[in-house]
Amino acid sequence: MSVTIPDYFTEDQKMVRMKRQPWNHDEYYQIHNILWEKGYLVNCVVRMGADGKWHDAWQIEREDTPTLIEMLFRQRIPVEVQAEGHGKASINFVYDTRADQILECLPRFFKNPRGK
After folding, report:
1. What is the distance between the alpha carbons of residues 35 and 81, in angstroms, rounded to a whole number?
2. CA 10 → CA 6, 7, 55, 113, distances in Å?
3. Cα distance between residue 68 and residue 104, in whole Å
4. Are 47 and 58 in contact, with CB atoms under 8 Å apart?
5. Are 114 and 88 in contact (CB under 8 A)?
6. Other C-beta atoms within 10 Å of 66: how many?
């Protein structure tokens, strides 16, 4: 039996695939409390991503979307955003970012400029 190794790997083949580690309730509360103190109303939820798989997510006020996306972008955390009803949106962590990685970058987030 012979194994053929490709000359070049595709972008998908280069990606690290790790098993999803869902966030636990303690991590939910820590994330919620830190962002609450910064003036954001964030609920940790689970949402289905564009890939059809379940991912940890934040349900947020739609008005806070640009600010939170910018801060996640600065921390190099890729996300998907989905509209939800009644002035809400969800930020889906589709690369299954671990909660400890999120908690590590939250102190660098700005306070809510809308002054909640």
Report:
1. 18
2. 9, 10, 24, 42
3. 15
4. no
5. no
6. 10
pLDDT, one tens digit for every residue, the chain (116 residues): 566 666 777 776 666 565 667 899 999 999 999 999 999 999 999 999 998 899 999 999 999 999 999 999 999 999 999 999 899 999 999 998 999 999 999 999 999 887 65
59 bridge partner residues = 43, 90
DSSP calls for 34-64: HHHHTT--EEEEEEE-TTSSEEEEEEEEGGG
Model's pTM, two decimal places?
0.80
Half-sphere exposure (Cβ direction) of 42: Cα atoms closer than 13 Å: 28
The residue to which tokens 């890729």 are assigned: 78
